[in-house]
């Protein structure tokens, strides 16, 4: 997901939204912030950079709160997709 921060395009948005549900993380990584070891952390950053908006997704929020933010991202994607 980190790659998409610099190279991602609007076509990558649905895959990044799916990655917001990803529970994988990098074991043993020594990032300055704990969230940086999680795929969903980087997917959110990439979405913000590509779409220039945010829906208050927090990588460490409860599953219910994450799912709500994901639903907002999906609605945003539907709007973007219809414009293109």
In which range does the helix fraction lie? 55-70%
Specify the oligomeric state.
single chain
Sheet of most strands? none
What portion of residues belong to β-strands? under 5%
Integer average pLDDT: 90
Query: Which sequence of SSEs, written as H and E, runs from N to C?
Result: HHHH
- The poorly predicted ranges are none
Q: In words, what does this structure look like?
A:
This protein is 56% helix and 0% strand. It is an all-alpha fold. The protein has four helices and no strands.
Summarize the structure.
Helix content is 56%, strand content 0%.
Which helices and strands occur, and which strands form pairs?
Blueprint: H1 2-7, H2 13-19, H3 39-51, H4 63-83
What keyword list fits this structure?
4 helices, 56% helix, 84 residues, single chain
